[in-house]
Amino acid sequence: MEINFFGIFAFTLTAWVAVGFLGQSFFSMRFIIQWIASEKVKKSVMPIAFWYFSLFGGATLFAYALHKQDPVFIFGQGMGLFVYMRNLYFVYAERKKKEASKELSVAEGGA
């Protein structure tokens, strides 16, 4: 299907272009999620959903970049995936540490 934006630019909507748009949508949603979370508490916060949307959007865009064989896009999205996974690791490691601390406190007779 040919899509034309007011004569400014046109493209053919293929399955791969749809994958690219889906990835970009996921990737863009991370900013909206972060903005809403920060507005709720009136300070800058980074909710875990930010990292999941980063990971899913980055992975989808990485697949699209591989299909397009664009080395700049591949490198940029590929490096980002490591950052997103590492941040998710930190989030879960911190949760595990807090849970272990709570269990130790309860075992020692604390609240």
Report on this model:
- The protein has 111 residues and is mainly α.
- It is built from 3 helices and 2 strands.
- A two-stranded antiparallel ribbon has the order 1-2.
- It is elongated.
- The N and C termini lie far apart (63 Å).
List keywords for this structure.
elongated, 111 residues, 77% helix, two-stranded antiparallel sheet, mainly alpha
Share in β-strands: 5-15%
Helix content: over 70%
Shape by Cα distribution: elongated
Strand adjacency order, main sheet: 1-2
Query: Structural class of the secondary elements?
Result: mainly alpha
Count of extended strands: 2
* Distance separating the two termini: 63 Å
User: What is the alpha-carbon Rg in Å?
Assistant: 20 Å
**How would you classify the quaternary structure?**
single chain
Name the poorly predicted regions. none
Order of helices and strands: EEHHH
Average pLDDT across residues? 91
Our count of domains comes out at 1
Q: Please work out how many helical segments DSSP would assign.
A: 3
Largest beta-sheet details: 2 strands, antiparallel
